[in-house]
Design goal:
This protein is of the alpha/beta class and about 700 residues long. It folds into four domains: about 200 residues, Beta-Lactamase, CATH 3.30.450; about 160 residues, P-loop containing nucleotide triphosphate hydrolases (Rossmann fold, 3-Layer(aba) Sandwich), CATH 3.40.50.300; about 70 residues, Orthogonal Bundle (Helicase, Ruva Protein, domain 3); about 70 residues. β15 and β16 form a beta hairpin. α8 packs across α19. It starts with 7 loop residues before the first helix and ends with a helix. Keywords: ATP-binding, DNA-binding, Nucleotide-binding, Transcription, Transcription regulation. This is Sigma-54-dependent Fis family transcriptional regulator.
Length: about 700
């Protein structure tokens, strides 16, 4: 997935061998090897100096009209890119499904330099036009990709570095376009790939929000068609031809029933702006029974009816109540229908039930795949992972993907309650069972989870004397509320979680062996955030978007310098710590771009020494100012100049960057390389002490 600039000389040699007809794959990544082979088959000229000539202004305007909705959904992202990428030596490009660039935003100097290779609006950057490049290769393989320097197939583009990924429609996974970050090779950063993935996800989220809004309005238009006395079959399709709601009577029509039984696949012909032609529609849809639903001149969906089969004259309400369907479209219902979950999962390449889990990291993907596999079996699952790693999100995913998804999901933290309170919370109690008992008694969590999933978090904290009672419930499926003798039957799916080593707890006598073997039939280990850094930028971006919506602050974008510092942190509190950090940054920020200055001073000073260049922590190299190879004296002079400016600006990094004449992101790199994080804190403390 990621490029490695350290291998550029080897890749360059492999490229030169390729020109001689030698296909040595040992020095290049499989993604690059596959792309170069495609370029050979397509007879792309490796000596190409730039992209083709751009299309004319009229054709570009027409292309932008065709992609108007994509541009509209991407507009806030492009505005953020203009501010966020200024001074970074990189720019963001938005391209259509054929690889033609529609829009550029970012660093003005880089946009000017991109003209030399025609990386400009109106130029097609598919592989068959420009060889291996992030836009074209991402379209070819449908995955995020980073292409650096000599990995480009065409020589004229090899001074550049780029990362791109496709934008997919959140409901059906159709590719809508490509987002790309490019710059000269000196601007290379692994974070560019995370940035394009986060950006594509933001655009897809805006599209999903609009689709849900249109579906809700579509259902309001369709309401009269769902009268309980109606005998026709009725199916409502959205503007992309996906079935949204049915009254259940379509099953009386044999062909429509077969279509619905096979999963109710999309009917693409219903996407047409006008009435669809007879030949385009499946044979089982009568064109005369297709009614477009129009709003403000826009087709937002279709209502298709089916005549009842002979002899079927039954009355009934058919499908789910329209209010429930409308709530599903607004996202208010507890869970979307299974068909929608499957579509969203396909778009995110995640198993059903786990659509909202961010898992670009291989270890995280493996954990999700295992949890999804176990969800299908009605056996207890033990989730293992550090505090804050996302165990409850996994438990909810297992519930959503299980056979009891329609039932309740009940969560209990075994470490958050005293022994007596936990007992009454789990088992419930009868009226008058003890002083202060609620009138009428209380249903316990075991009963509340009946027919669904019980999630016991922090199972390792369960008091030893309560453990045999839990074991009996699991083995017999029976409980007694406190203060009563009546036996009550319960049946639920158990998912438990712990950050402890339960085998060690068993050996120490703090956890029963028989209960351990009962709950640990299967297990899933969830990696900590520090072990899945490929997910960090995407998570941070998703949290920023979520909290900006929740708190009504307007869109918020995380600056690259801030993301660098976040990536350098160890995150002992895992995803929970990151989520809380991002919420605080969103609430405290004044503008649309959140910079590194927004971090708490003590946190920022601690992280700075870790945020150096690709070489890693500053301590990994020679001590600043120590004798060394050529340039050591220049390094010492640079260090002293930065120290002096930090002192005069009292640790204000924005002012320091201006006085030094460099971008603030560059200043952060230099602070990390010279190990000056403590000097920043000291300069600010000096200001506080005055």
């Amino acid at each position: 997935m990621f490029s490695n600039p350290d291998n550029d000389a080897l890749v360059r040699t492999a490229w030169q061998s390729l020109l001689r007809g030698e296909l040595d794959t040992s020095t290049r990544r499989p993604i690059i090897d596959g792309s170069w082979r495609r370029c050979l088959d397509l007879k792309v000229d490796p000596g190409l100096a730039a992209g083709r000539d751009p299309i004319g202004a009229d054709r570009l305007a027409a292309l932008r009209r065709v992609n108007a909705e994509l541009l509209d959904m991407a507009a806030p992202v492009l505005v953020d890119a203009h501010a966020m990428l200024a001074g970074t030596g990189t720019m963001l490009a938005l391209a259509d499904t054929r690889g033609t660039i529609l829009k550029l935003e970012g660093d003005n100097g880089t946009i000017d330099r991109a003209d030399s290779i025609r990386l400009v609006p109106g130029v097609n950057w598919r592989e068959d036009e420009c060889g291996t490049n992030a836009i074209g290769t991402a379209l070819a393989i449908g995955e995020p990709v980073q292409i650096h320097s000599s990995e480009h197939y065409c020589e004229g583009i090899q001074r550049w570095t780029c990362a791109a990924t496709v934008i997919r429609h959140p409901l059906d996974g159709e590719v809508l376009g490509v987002v790309d970050v490019s710059g000269l090779s000196g601007s290379y950063s692994r974070h560019s790939l995370a940035l394009v993935v986060t950006t594509a996800n933001r655009i897809a989220a805006r599209i999903a929000e609009r689709e849900m809004e249109l579906r809700f309005r579509l259902l309001e238009h369709a309401l009269p068609w769902f009268a309980s006395t109606r005998e026709d079959g009725v199916v409502v399709f959205d503007r992309r031809g996906h079935p949204v709601k049915t009254n259940g009577r379509e099953r009386d029509h044999a062909a429509a029933s077969d279509w619905w039984r096979l999963g109710g696949r999309r009917v693409g012909a219903l996407c047409f702006a006008g009435a669809p032609g007879d030949a385009a529609l499946p044979a089982w849809i009568d064109p005369a029974r297709v009614r477009p639903v129009m709003e403000n001149g826009e087709r937002i969906g279709s209502i298709v009816t089916f005549a009842p089969a002979a002899g079927t004259r039954r009355a009934g309400t058919g499908g789910a109540d329209w209010r429930e369907a409308a709530a599903l479209c607004r996202g208010e219902a507890a869970q979307p229908p299974a068909s929608a979950r499957r579509a969203i999962a396909a778009a995110s390449a995640m198993p059903p039930g786990f659509e909202h889990v961010v898992a670009h990291d291989p270890a995280m993907r493996e954990a999700v795949a295992r949890a999804s596999q176990l969800a299908a079996a009605h056996v207890p699952v033990l989730l293992l992972g550090e505090t804050g790693a996302g165990k409850e999100e996994f438990a909810r995913g297992i519930h959503r993907a299980s056979a009891v998804a329609a039932g309740p999901f009940v969560a209990v933290n075994c470490g958050g309650l005293s022994r007596d309170l936990l007992t009454s919370e789990l088992f419930g109690y009868a009226e008058g069972a003890f002083t202060g008992a609620r009138r009428g008694g209380m249903v316990g969590k075991f009963e509340a989870a009946n027919g669904g999933t019980l999630f016991l978090d922090e199972l390792g904290e369960l008091p030893l004397d309560l453990q045999p009672h839990l074991l009996r419930v699991l083995e017999c499926g029976e409980i007694h509320r406190l203060g009563e003798t009546q036996t009550r039957k319960v049946s639920f799916r158990l998912v438990a979680a712990t950050h402890r080593d339960l085998r060690a707890e068993v050996a120490a006598g703090r956890f029963r062996m028989d209960l351990f073997y009962r709950v640990a039939v299967t297990s899933v280990r969830i990696p900590p955030l520090r072990a899945r850094r490929a997910d960090l930028h995407a998570l941070a971006g998703l949290f920023a978007d979520r909290f900006a919506r929740e708190h009504g602050t307007g869109p918020r974008t995380l600056a690259p310098a801030l993301l660098d510092l976040l990536a350098a942190h160890d995150w002992p509190g895992n995803v929970r710590e990151l989520r809380n950090m991002i919420e605080g940054l969103v609430l405290m920020s004044d503008g649309p771009v959140i910079d590194a200055d927004a971090l708490p001073p003590d946190w920022r000073a601690e992280a700075l020494p870790l945020s150096g260049a690709a070489g890693g922590p500053a301590s990994a190299g020679p001590a600043p100012g120590a004798p060394g190879p050529d340039g050591a004296s220049l390094d010492l002079a640079e260090r002293r100049q930065i120290e002096a400016v930090l002192l005069t600006t009292r640790g204000n990094l924005a002012r320091a960057a201006r006085e030094l004449g460099i971008a603030k992101s560059t200043l952060y790199v230099k602070l990390g390389r010279h190990g000056l994080g403590a000097r920043v804190a000291a300069a600010r403390e000096g200001e506080d002490g005055q």
